[in-house]
Amino acid sequence: MPRPHLFRALAVVVAWTLALLFLGSVVHATESSLACPDWPTCFGTMMPEMVGGVFWEHLHRLVAGGLILIFAGATWLAFREAGDRRWMTRASVAGVVLLLVQAVFGGLTVIYRLPDAVSTTHLALAFGFLALAVVLATAASPRRTTEPAPSPQVARVLRQWGGGAAALVFVQSVLGAVVRHTDSGMGCPDFPTCLGQWVPPMDTHFVAIHFTHRVVGVLATLAVVGLAVALVRAGAGPGLRRWAAGAVALVAAQFTLGVVSVLSILDVLPVSLHTLGAAALLALLVHLAARGHLTRADAPGGPGRTAAGPHVAGVA
Ligand code: HEM
Ligand code: HEM
Hints:
Blueprint: H1 5-29, H2 52-81, H3 86-111, H4 116-140, H5 143-146, H6 152-181, H7 205-233, H8 238-263, H9 268-293
The chain binds protoporphyrin IX containing FE (2 copies).
One protoporphyrin IX containing FE is lined by residues 17, 20-21, 24-25, 27-28, 33, 39, 57, 60-61, 64, 67, 99, 102-103, 106-107, 109-110, 114, 119, 122-123, 126, 129, 177, 180.
C-alpha cells in the first residue's frame, strides 16, 4: 500500500502557494512593496515591528520562507516514496531551485525598486512553481490508483483542451502582471466598452496592454468552456465533469473579478482576489491536463518508469 505522506505534503504546498500568491498581490495593492527597504533582512532584522506596510511585506517574506521549508520536506519525501518515478524527484529538485531563484527575484524587486520586468517575472515564476507543485500532487494522489483511468478519448481531451486552456491562462496571467506593473489597470476605465468604444484607439500603451488583456481573457474563458463541452462529449465520468464545472465557475468568477477591479478603480480586495482566482484556475486546469498525461505507471505504487518524464496515456 503506497504511503500518502508525499501527497499530503504536496497538497499543503499547493494550498500554501495559493495563500502566498494572494499575499504577494496584497503587498503590491497596498503599496507595501518597498515597506522593507532592505533584503533579506527588513530594517536590518528578521523580526521588524509588524505595522503598516511592513506587516504585509514581511509577512509575505515569512510565508515564502515557510513554503521553501515545506517544499524541501516534500522533496525529501519524494526521494523516499517516489520509487522508480524518478521524474518526480527530478521535478522536486527543480522546484527547490525555482523557489530559491524566486526568493532572489523577490529581493531584486526590493533592491532595484520594482522594475516592471522583475516584478512581472516574479509573478510568472510564482505561477510556474504552482503548476509544477500541482503536477507533482496529482501524480502523488492515492486517487490515481483507486479511480478508473480516463478512456483514451477523455485523456486526449484532457491533454489537448486542458493543456491548451492552462497555457492560455498562464499567458493571460503574465499579461495581467504587465497590465499591473505598467500601470495600465485603468487604461480602459469602462466596461464592456473601452473608452466608450468596442475597439478603442490604441494610441497609448496603457490602452493597448489593457485591451489585449481583455481580449485574451475572453479567449481563455472560451477555452475553459470548450474544455468542459469536449469532456462531456467524450463521455467523461461524473468526477471529471465536476472538475470541469468547477473550472467554468472559476473562470466566470475570475472574469467578473476583472470587471469589478476596473469598476472599483483597482480596490485592494478585488485585485488581490483576481490574482488568487487566476492562480486557482491555473491549478485546476494543470491538474486536469496532468490527469490526461499521467498513466498508471506514474501512480503511487505503480511500476514507475525510468525515462525522463511522465508518460503520455495511450502513447507510452
Ligand atoms: C523571500 C522571498 C521573497 C521576497 C523578498 C518577495 C518580495 C515581494 C515583493 C516586494 C512583492 C511586491 C512586488 C511589486 O509590487 O511589484 C512581491 C509580490 C509577489 N510575490 Fe513575492 N517575494 C518573495 C518570495 C515569493 C515566493 C516564494 C512567491 C511564490 C512562489 C512569491 C509570489 C509573489 C506574487 C505572486 C506577488 C505578486 C506579484 C504581482 O502582483 O504581480 N513571492 N513579492
Ligand atoms: C480568464 C480571465 C483572466 C485572467 C486569468 C486574469 C488574470 C490576471 C492576473 C494574473 C493579473 C495580474 C495580477 C497581479 O499582478 O498580481 C491581472 C491583472 C488585471 N486584470 Fe485580469 N485576468 C482575466 C480577465 C480580466 C478581465 C476580463 C478584466 C477586465 C475587464 C481584467 C482586468 C484586470 C486588471 C484591471 C488588472 C490590473 C490590476 C492592478 O493593476 O492591480 N482581467 N489579471
